[in-house]
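Ops channel
N.P.: pipeline sanity check, posting one input/output pair.
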């Protein structure tokens, strides 16, 4: 089941206009606290910059939205970035656009265009994804079945995680929750019922869409 859409991974992009450098940083997060901590880390790393403008959206339905102009004229930077992210239907992410002023003023419209252009480039660098419910099934099975299981994982039927090799193989099998029953059946049929399910838990998977 789809939980929400977000960005796939950290992304960074640079945009230059009228000698001003705009560096966009986009980071997926799981909470408002994590987002604020990320914004603080960027401001610390780029503390010599003229501005570090943040925009945050969290919650599966974009419930929490926050932005700051960080010294830029009101409404020219943080809010346009926030509107851009919201319009794309993305959540659980933080975007910070760092600006090094180049000496030429851009005007209010120019600032809004520059910040949204940079933010869009940062989102593009991070990639978009669908965050889905997942199942993590940890199995124990004989070595004779390993190559067939690896082949199925390579075909994208599921993910094979953290294999441990001893007298038998122990590994995690992660799949979309909607495919849980199918994957259990595959493991049963493939091993003639010999694979032993050790544990199971629910989680999330990030499925890249572009």
């Amino acid at each position: 089941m789809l939980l929400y859409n977000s960005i796939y991974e950290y992304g960074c992009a640079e945009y230059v206009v009228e000698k001003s450098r705009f560096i966009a940083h986009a980071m997926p997060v799981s909470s408002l606290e994590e987002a604020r901590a990320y914004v603080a880390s960027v401001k610390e790393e780029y503390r010599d910059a003229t501005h570090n403008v943040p925009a945050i959206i969290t919650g599966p339905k974009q419930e929490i939205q926050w932005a700051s102009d960080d010294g830029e004229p009101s409404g020219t930077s943080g809010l346009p970035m926030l509107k851009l992210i919201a319009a794309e239907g993305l959540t659980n992410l933080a975007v910070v656009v760092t600006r090094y002023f180049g000496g030429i003023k851009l005007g209010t419209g120019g600032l809004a265009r520059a910040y949204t252009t940079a933010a869009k480039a940062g989102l593009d660098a991070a990639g978009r994804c669908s965050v889905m419910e997942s199942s993590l099934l940890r199995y124990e099975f004989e070595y004779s079945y390993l190559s067939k299981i690896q082949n199925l994982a390579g075909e994208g039927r599921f993910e094979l995680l953290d294999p441990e090799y001893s007298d038998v193989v122990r590994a995690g099998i992660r799949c979309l929750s909607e495919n849980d029953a199918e994957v259990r059946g595959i493991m049963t049929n493939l091993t003639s019922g010999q694979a032993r399910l050790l544990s199971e838990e629910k989680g999330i998977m990030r499925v890249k869409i572009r």
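N.P.: looks fine end to end. The longest helix spans residues 107-126.
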